[in-house]
Amino acid sequence: MIIESPIDLDLTINSGQTSQPPWRQVEDSFSNVVMIDDEPVVFNVRQAGKYLDFNCDDAGAVSKLKYIFDLDFNLDKFYRYLNNYEELKGMSEFCNGLRLFLAPDPFECVISSICSANNSIKRWTKSVSLIKQKWGNGHGDYYTFPQNNVLSKVYLDEEEEFNSSDIQDIEMCRNNLKNCGVGYRAPYIRKASELFTHEIDLSEIPEMSYDEAFETILKVPGVGPKVADCILLYGFNFREAFPSDVWIKRIVSHLYFDGKDISVPKVREFGMEEFGKNAGYVQLYMFHYARKSGLMEKLKK
Predict the structure, then answer these.
(1) Does the active-site annotation cover 260?
(2) pLDDT score of 90
């Protein structure tokens, strides 16, 4: 079925948003397994003009797809918003059809975001995919993301696996987090899994105020302000989040502060106050505009 909401599917899926690894691509089709009412359903979508062609007409599946690709967000209205401001004009031309790529599983977003810290898109997406293959549930060629209570019990590294199992050769110990390429983040991932198993209820976070949710997510090991904002934006749809790092700092400084050196916390505060409920989208468009327009190369110098 055709879902008439404009989107650039390839750009959205492969834009490096930390909700999840990119969906599997075969020619012009993207697919993944998504849980609908606790049942796995293989979603298959492809670009159909400026819209999406979806392989399923089940109401629950359509609703979930619209959520994942944020298809109810009015891009035309957002582009009018951008074009009202001199600093933001032109961004829609470089990023036309780019939407938020929201996590169908918030816990996967938490772990993806932890894996992404100080890491390349290629490496963290590979790590998350390996975690799914090792401890998720298989459905054909697809794997769901493991639940927090499952991931809380996995081995950290080869040594722990060797000492706690019947394996006779440590070279055969591959059923551990470090074998997924997460490096120093392995303890963070397991501790985060334990936290969401025993102390923090993920389902309560969407009901919190932004500030309360932010402080709650900051309790997660390995999560600082930028990662917390990514989790709230991509995992829980808090659109006032403005994830800020050194690159967003340089972009905002160039666009709004004549290149003056301002702190990352000040940039975050500025973005949230200046853009309100559009903050998450503005941050997404700023970053991709800087990449595509050549601004990022200019700011490296």
Answers:
(1) no
(2) 87
pLDDT digits (tens, 9 = 90+) for 72-128: 999 999 999 999 999 999 899 999 999 999 999 999 999 999 999 989 999 999 999
Backbone angles phi, psi at 138, to 5 degrees: -85, 140
Mean pLDDT across the stretch 216-233?
A: 96
Are the CB atoms for 32 and 43 separated by under 8 Å? yes
Are 157 and 176 spatial neighbours (Cβ–Cβ below 8 Å)? yes
Q: What digits encode the pLDDT tens for the residues 7-53?
A: 999 999 999 899 999 999 998 999 999 999 999 999 999 999 999 99
Lowest mean pLDDT among 13-22, 165-174, 275-284: 165-174
Q: Are 237 and 17 in contact (CB under 8 A)?
A: no
pLDDT value of position 168: 85
Return the closest-CA partner of residue 3 out of 38, 36, 34, 49: 49
Catalytic residue (choose from 64, 178, 226, 249): 226
Could you give the dihedral angle defined by the CA atoms of residues 175, 179, 182 and 188, in that order, rounded to the nearest 10 degrees? 40
Phi, psi angles (nearest 5°) of residue 48: -130, 90
